[in-house]
Amino acid sequence: MTTPFRCTEPLPPRSATGTVAEVYAQIALDFGISEPVTFVVLSSAPELLAPTWALLRESLIAGAGSRTGKELAALGVSMANKCPFCVDAHTVLLHATGDHTLAERLARGERPETEEHARVLAWGQHTRVPGAALEPYPFPREHAPAYLGTALTFHFINRTASALLTENLLPAGAQRFRAVRSLAGRTLARTVRRPARPGTSLQLLDPVDPGEAPAWAQGTPVGIAYAALLRAAMRGAGPLDADDHDLVEQTLQDWDGSHPPLAWDGFPDRRERPGARLALPAALAPYRITDEDVTAWRRPEHTDHCLVHLVAYGALVAVDRIESAICAQIIQEAT
């Protein structure tokens, strides 16, 4: 049987208990998919699963602004990060919003018909570049927390999906067929179009000091969810020694949003620095993580929980680099 998971073997969702079971219940209710593999792959680390879901829910689903607009922003992010799994997922979700013509134009690689939609898609793509000029926003300023939260959510999910999942959204790549995309979207339509009350997911999180929430979140639940994910993911640096940690952090400090070339020698040798060899690609080009990279790093004490945390750490270092640049822009504008 073909599995969508690479390098990990998550427990079947039906065996979930505690926080994981509670997250799955909320996902089924508010996302419309009971066992989305983008979350199942994180289930060995509940402390990561819960804030990842919370950030997605509070921004994309319950945050201010149109669902179509936020799906376009998420699609732009996924295109910029070269994540075919997530590109296909957001195309299906655009069908769920009722925007069938828009979804199919994008599936064909065409530009949206309306300038408004084109600007939101381009805005999502530009968020990959730390410090890129993101204003004026292609959406009302009061919707910025939800749109920024959505973009940061998928900068994280794109990376974990590219590292730990195969490219196929549906078995045998069935999402490549228009009729399948449309049908899959229609099955989600009722849930996608139903309003969601903000803040419900925060009960799944460990207590977070509201003062840790970033300024761009403007006091919304999005900021609490982001702070919780940042705190949880940064614990994944634990398996790295000081030199590997410094290498990852310094490389990302100098990162300009570009994809490293195939011949790039910035990725360390997997035999000499296997931890950094996983964390750094997770940040910059997770689609280049190979089974050999994971095997070189694995030790008897390295469980799926450890691997998911290490990948999440690399992913979040990149996200944090993007988010820090957003905060710097906001502070500069305020002064």
Describe the secondary-structure layout:
Layout: H1 18-30, H2 37-40, H3 46-61, H4 67-80, H5 84-97, H6 100-107, H7 115-126, H8 144-164, H9 178-192, H10 221-234, H11 242-253, H12 274-284, H13 291-297, H14 304-334
Q: From the helix content, strand content and strand pairing, which structural class follows?
A: mainly alpha
Listing every helix as H and every strand as E from the N terminus to the C terminus, the arrangement reads HHHHHHHHHHHHHH
Which percent range describes the beta-strand content? under 5%
Proportion of helical residues: 55-70%
Number of strands: 0
Amino- and carboxy-terminal Cα gap: 58 Å
Enumerate the spans where pLDDT stays under 50 for 5 or more consecutive residues.
Answer: none
The shape, in one word, is globular
Question: What's the gyration radius in Å?
Answer: 19 Å
Largest sheet: none
Number of helices: 14
Average of pLDDT: 95
List keywords for this structure.
335 residues, single chain
Describe the structure.
With 335 residues, the protein is an all-alpha fold. The protein has helices at residues 18-30, 37-40, 46-61, 67-80, 84-97, 100-107, 115-126, 144-164, 178-192, 221-234, 242-253, 274-284, 291-297, 304-334.
